[in-house]
Amino acid sequence: MHISLLYGNPNPDDQAFLNYLDGLRSAVSDSHTLDIWDIEKMDIHYCIGCWTCWWETPGRCVHKDDGPDIFKSVIHADLLILASPMMAGFTSSSLKRICDRLIVLLHPYITFIKKECHHWKRYDTYPKIGLLLKKEPDTDKEDLLITRDIYDRFAINFHSRILFMDFIEDTAVDQLIEKTVSIQNAISI
Q1: I need a labelling partner for 1 at 20 to 30 A (CA). Which of 28, 35, 53, 127 fits?
Q2: Number of domain units in the chain
Q3: Residue 142 belongs to what H/E stretch?
Q4: Which residues contact 170 (CB under 8 A, 6 or more apart)?
Q5: Which alpha helices (DSSP H) does the chain contain, by range?
Q6: What's the helix, strand, coil split of the chain in %, to 5?
Q7: Cross-strand partners of 129
Q8: What is residue 122's DSSP assignment?
Q9: pTM score, two decimals?
């Protein structure tokens, strides 16, 4: 299975988050293809809503940055894991920034899904999605519901679905690996 993991952690001293991702990398790399993208260390510009990727250069963003490498990894993945510490009740701005830029993987045209307007697919298949978060000390149930709702909306527009939302405080790496194996089996059916 090809996994693309995008993470945004603006705190380089957050060793618990980095250790968890290192454990995940070590455990998964023998049996799966794993692309890990540290958004904080990459040149990723904000989407400016110019629509160039839709009308002038379909499927290609106007920004000359590291985005195309990530786009290619994401669209070829079976599983997209979005990872971030919670910050002010939501994911990091760097993770949000790259998620906004993934609009390049869709067409500008609109279709109805569940009585809502969503973009047409640009590609035949899109990866399933998992959320891997690190709670703040004051993260509450409402923060988690809002975060889940926003990423559920992202998944619908991405012609996919959220398979899990786990927290590094609650989920050991081996449990996440078991979940990945279950996901692989479900995807290959």
Answers
A1: 53
A2: 1
A3: helix 141-157
A4: none
A5: 15-28, 52-55, 67-76, 93-101, 141-157, 173-188
A6: 40, 25, 35
A7: 80, 162
A8: S
A9: 0.92
d(CA 45, CA 35): 20
pLDDT digits (tens, 9 = 90+) for 8-62: 999 888 888 888 888 888 888 788 899 999 999 999 999 999 999 999 999 999 9
CB 163 within 8 A of CB 128: yes
3-state secondary structure of 78: coil
Residue 131 near residue 164 (C-beta atoms within 8 A): yes
Residue 35 in tokens: 């692309």
Cβ pair 181, 35 in contact under 8 A: no
Listed residue (97, 106, 35) closest to 63, CA to CA: 97
C-alpha 4/C-alpha 75 separation (Å) is 9
